[in-house]
Amino acid sequence: MSAALSVIAPGIQTTVQDLGRVGYQALGVPVAGALDPVALRLVNALVDNEPAMAALEFLYQGPTLQVNTHSVRVAAAWSDIEVLGEPARRIPPWQSIRLTEGTRFRLGATQGSVCGYLAIQGGLALASVLGSQSTYTRSRIGGFEGRALGAQDALPLAQPAAETRTEVRLSAPPDAGPPDRIRVVLGPQDTHFTEAAVASFLADSFVVSKDADRMGLRLEGPALTHSQGYNIVSDGIATGAIQVPGSGHPIVMLADHQTTGGYPKIATVISADLPAVGRLRPGDSIRFRAVSTAEAEAARRALEADIERRARNVVPAAEGSELNEAALYATNLVSGIVSATDCLSDDVP
Q: Which 8-state DSSP code applies to residue 318?
């Protein structure tokens, strides 16, 4: 039997994603990659992977998987890992766990982020397409057959067994909440809008609409008025570009965005704030603040330093840090309240 994770239930839009397919937009090939590259890099650190190694990304609710190999070590970002069976165990986000053959486990609902990640020690034995394992479903390239996972799929593993070692956790996990204002560099077509529209864009709040996916976030709020019409000669689109079509409602372009477009772009989200934008859910509020290119570059350097600091601060997982659900259900609840310490068991394996 080849080493694999079998998909019992696929979750919502579970795909293989790494840091993206860089360098091919001139040929019409989108970058794709993780909506939250910060989470991807940090969760890989917990299972001794290279930062850019591909993981499973899921939206809202993760998959249920079965270990069909000797053993595997995994860790999740923005989601618990629920180990099914007797006893049931729940592993918190940002903590590694070694699971043995036959074990079934489920990734829970995402916490504070639209997307969650499962890193697998050693990665997946999948072919790269143009230097990346990232899935771009619109063209059915990369990842697992170019598509989201389905029930009964078998994900091939690059490593058949995980060594026995102390499990670890991040001592300082990132905060899922976005900053008060998302920083942008105005342009390249901000002059295609009235002065009042630019002022409104930077002063007013917008809400992420239900029309949001890996391609982009459509925002609801004040309509932004064009001064020179809403059609331009199509030009290149960067991740984070904010297009404004004829409706006047901005669209923030995300990982799966098209490579060119013909609507004016009022601004571009700086790369340091893109992971926070990638975590946003429909209904979340968003505001913008203009910064200079120099400030954007400094913010990116600060983010890189923060990621490296957090990745270095990996510490042993505390004894009893796994939630023993059997103990929880056996506890006598009084008026719906129970001490959290009663839910932890020192004899959790």
A: P
In the chain, the N- to C-terminal Cα span, in Å, equals 27
Domain boundaries, the chain: 4-175, 182-305
The secondary structure of 122-189 as a DSSP string is: T-B----BTTB---BTTTTBSTBTTB---TT-EEEBS-S-------EEESSPPP-SPPSSEEEEE-SS
One pLDDT digit (tens) per residue for the chain, 349 residues: 589 999 999 999 999 999 999 999 999 999 999 999 999 999 999 999 999 999 999 999 999 999 999 999 999 999 999 999 888 899 999 999 999 999 999 999 999 999 999 999 999 999 999 999 999 999 999 999 999 999 999 999 999 999 999 999 999 999 998 899 999 999 999 999 999 999 999 999 999 999 999 999 999 999 999 999 999 999 999 999 999 999 999 999 999 999 999 999 999 999 999 999 999 999 999 999 999 999 999 999 999 999 999 999 999 998 656 655 444 444 344 444 333 333 333 333 3
Dihedral (Cα; 191, 195, 199, 201), 10-degree rounding? -50
Amino acid 57 reads: E
Q: In what order do the strands lie in the sheet with 323-324?
A: 154-156, 4-9, 64-68, 104-107, 81-83, 89-91, 323-324
pTM of structure:
0.90
Q: Which CATH code of 2.40.50.100, 3.40.50.280, 2.40.100.10, 2.60.40.10 fits the domain covering 182-305?
A: 2.40.100.10
What CA dihedral angle connects 206, 180, 283 and 198, to 10 degrees?
10
Report the distance separating Cα 219 and Cα 349, nearest Å: 47
Backbone angles phi, psi at 199, to 5 degrees: -65, -40
Amino acid at 47: V
Which residue in the block uniquely carries the two structure tokens 């199509």?
A: 234
